[in-house]
Amino acid sequence: MNNPFNSYRSLFPVLAEYVHLASCSQGAIALPVSKAIEEYHNSLLSSGVNWDQAIMKVEATREKFAELINAEVDEVAILSSFSDCLSTIATCLPYKKNKNKIVLTDIDFPTVGHIWLAQEQDGANISLMRSSDGIFPLEQYRTEVTEDTLLTCISHVSYYNGYMQNLKEIANVVHKKGSLLFVDAYQSAGHIPIDVKEMNIDMLSTGTRKYMLGIPGVAFLYIKKELAEQLKPRHTGWFGQDDKSKFDIFNSTYASGARRFETGTPSFISIYAAYEGLNLLLKVGINNIQSYLKELAEYTKEFGFQSGLQVTTPLAADMSSGMTSFHIENAPKIAEILIEKKIIVSARKDVIRMAPHFYNTKDELVYAITELARMAK
Predict the structure, then answer these.
(1) Residues 6+ apart with CB under 8 A from 30
(2) Which of 79, 9, 110 is nearest to 349 (CA)?
(3) CA atoms within 13 A on the CB side of 150
(4) pLDDT, tens digit, for every residue of 105-135?
(5) pTM for the full model?
(6) Distance from C-alpha of 251 to C-alpha of 333, rounded to nearest angstrom
(7) Are 314 and 161 in contact (CB under 8 A)?
């Protein structure tokens, strides 16, 4: 299997020494991203102030992300983390007696449960959907999302086993029950195509440090514009105001669209990095990346089986993403030992996750899986 993106490998210095298969945790940093970080730093060193340039970069980055998910620019808010994005939504929803149910799943990242459970004091009724072997049949959504469901919160791709859900089908089901749909796209954005219009997603959030090739400090929140205008944020700040330059402490006027959910000054240095990461992804093409990673994922599962490893990722191609998980006792310790072999993977509880990106090769996966199988024995 030839890597059609081989010419891009030189942009990622870490690949000269390591096999980097941890995009589900921290993607490899590309030279354009590194140079953007230096650009922000150097502008402060040389001029002392770079506010105007940084604000322009924020807006340019907003446009890039909107392009990535086919959203309108005013439907994108920029915050500092996924947790902030979800919290700002959770704290502004109207929890009414006959419409207060929040459905989440047992494959969601822990912070999702932490945030929603914290809303019980404000009237939220939390309902947990339990998976079977890490997956959910569509019928389960038809049964467990009921007429009193205010919002259904799901992961596009599971952080634990790489299971990918069909967002359009789920959206159709939950909307018929009168429920909003919030999508955690942290493990999908950057390597799986997302079209929020075609998929009919109400809200979506993701961050930049994984498949989107950035660093911590930036997260995006998409909200349908007509929905955003109906909500009044309680978790807010001066960047969420209609005219933040008025510096009016007593009169709050929310900005239009999703911008009203922004809070304080964003991490500009992370914004500079996010812009270049998004720019590179759009240049390569998300459809192209997904096609290549599907091939790598199928090979990873097949070679893993042949090597005697237990694959926990769903075998069906339409349910799996670019990430493959292997059940490994003492996974965190094994991940540390693999680093000594110049192999970077990510451990979660009892699994080792291998998450290649477009810059990875089949040979790298062969080496990593062979070493993992040897240690597992």
Answers:
(1) 11, 12, 213, 276, 277, 280
(2) 110
(3) 20
(4) 999 999 999 999 999 999 999 999 999 988 9
(5) 0.95
(6) 54
(7) yes
* Contacts for 184 with CB less than 8 Å, ≥ 6 apart: 82, 86, 108, 109, 112, 153, 154, 155, 156, 204, 205, 206
The answer to whether the CB of 186 falls within 8 A of the CB of 211 is no
Dist CA 44 CA 67 (whole Å): 29
101 DSSP β-pair partners: 125, 149
What is the three-class DSSP state of 7? helix
Q: Rg of the Cα trace of the chain?
A: 21
For 157-201, the pLDDT digits (tens) are 999 999 999 999 999 999 999 999 999 999 999 999 999 999 999
Per residue, what are the HEC states of 101-162? EEEEECCCCHHHHHHHHCCHHHCCEEEEECCECCECCHHHHHHHCCCCEEEEEEECECCCCC
Mean pLDDT score, 28-53: 94
Q: Quote the CA–CA distance of 158 and 323 in Å, as a whole number.
A: 9
Q: Which of 159, 191, 201, 158 lies closest to 278 in space, CA to CA?
A: 191
The structure tokens listed for 186 are 């942290």
Cβ pair 237, 264 in contact under 8 A: yes
List C-alpha distances in Å: 230 to 72, 142, 222, 254, 260: 17, 26, 14, 11, 11
